[in-house]
Amino acid sequence: MPQPPESLAPETAPLAVPAAVRPPSLRRRLAALLDWMLPDSLLGRLSVVMIFGVLVTQVAGGLIWAVQLRSKSEAETRTAAQHLAHSAASAIRYFMTLPPNYRPLMIQQLREMGGTRFFINANSSAVPVKSIGDSHLANLAIDVAAQTLREDLPFLPEARLAFAWPDGLPVASDGLTVNDLPDNWVQHILLTKPNSAPVLVIQMQVESGRWIYLAALMPNPYFLDSDNPLWLDRLVLQGLSLAAILLLTILVVRWTTRPLAALADAAEAFGKGETVPSLPETGSREYVKTARAFSGMRERIKRYLEDRERLFVSISHDLRTPITRLKLRTELMDDDAMRTDFHDDLDELDMMVKGALQSVKDSDIHENRTEVRLDALVLRMIRDARLAGHEIAFTPSGINVMAKPLALKRAIGNLFDNALYYGQKVEISIRPSAGAGGDLVEIEIRDHGPGVPEDAMGTLFQPYVRLEHGRAQNSGGMGLGLGISRNIVQAHGGELLLRNHPEGGLIATIILPAR
Fold first, then answer.
1. Is the overall model pTM greater than 0.85, yes or no?
2. Domain endpoint, select from 364, 392, 408
3. 94 shares its domain with 217
4. CA 52 → CA 38, 196, 404, 431, distances in Å?
5. Which helix (H) or strand (E) holds 429?
6. pLDDT per residue over 336-383, tens digit each?
7. Are 264 and 437 spatial neighbours (Cβ–Cβ below 8 Å)?
8. Diameter of the chain by CA atoms?
9. Could you tell me where the DSSP H helices lie in 98-152?
10. Are 346 and 420 in a shared domain?
């Protein structure tokens, strides 16, 4: 059988990689890194972003300014070094025109007249001068001055140039220093206030055994500092600008987020069934729109809850009368077995109506929060249970919580009653805990009963759901207690967890905020 053309042959489909084993994308990794680095609050995040932005801007501006400053300083240093070298070459040529014997006399006359731009001396050899050290601008000035001297005095040997500090500067081959000279002789090359300025020393051999020594300040004596971008006044200015931007950012963000905090508090209070004050409709357009939407949602939910309660009350009231009439009519039946069956069905129907109404009432207990002593609340339950012969283990903890007393008692009581029904022994413990949202309190109730199958654990909070052993041991229950307890705990901002103990029995854990 001929094979299909290669172009028509089916291609092998690429294997699909499950989403669970795919590596996280770069965007997700960056988002996770930012979440880890940035604070949790909006104020902290905006402050960090603003500070980072200002710092990046200042660093970039500082680098640009430093490059421009360095280029400008190099151009000024090059020009000043050329000008100073031209003057030094002119002075050397002048002294070379004089007879060697007259040079010391001319130097002496110049000193007595107040000196010139240069301090000049005639020596028999080169004077060792200690350099100021490695400096970019100093090396540039020396290179430019040396090149200029070579161009102006090509007939003389290479000049020796160096920058030195004026204190203790040697000026003669016999060891004479600047400190040994009269002030009027060196007044043009000494600059010690506010800081010492470096002196450019030029030594050139004009004849065998005859050296001309010249020392002078640069036109800008402090030229070495001219390319330093870290000036104190600039650092202070950048620090003040950063502080001002940070302060304004904090003020603006706090002003912006204060209504959001009020909205969050109102939503939390409304979720817990507390009285919620009206939100002010002032601020940004987005906040006003959100506040109006929240107020409308709150009113709709409130009306729904009120309508639900009235509906259940009406249903309970309306069903009670026909149920009673049906019970009376069953009494007229001659068949005893059928009359008993009718009575059982009507009793079950009556219990279901009462249970549904009780579920609504227990989940919506209207009371204010107050400080509840958990030990006293639990001990009152335990006292009655012990009188009935139940074995209960409990150690007081001394922990208090802010809660609705009757609602919390109903939530704990439902769990406590379930533990008494299904277990021969009950253990209760109260302990502090720590969570991501702050300090927590855990109330743990364990029974020693058969426990719950793992596949049925997720259905326990559904209304009217009862397991087989529950119906056998407590035929009068309706399967509403766990749902009521969870609703009350969630209204307090907490959580109700159920799990099996490894050694048998069920553990119900109520987690509440400490405050």
1. no
2. 364
3. yes
4. 11, 39, 46, 43
5. strand 425-435
6. 778 787 777 777 777 666 666 665 555 555 567 888 888 888 888 888
7. no
8. 161
9. 103-112, 136-152
10. no
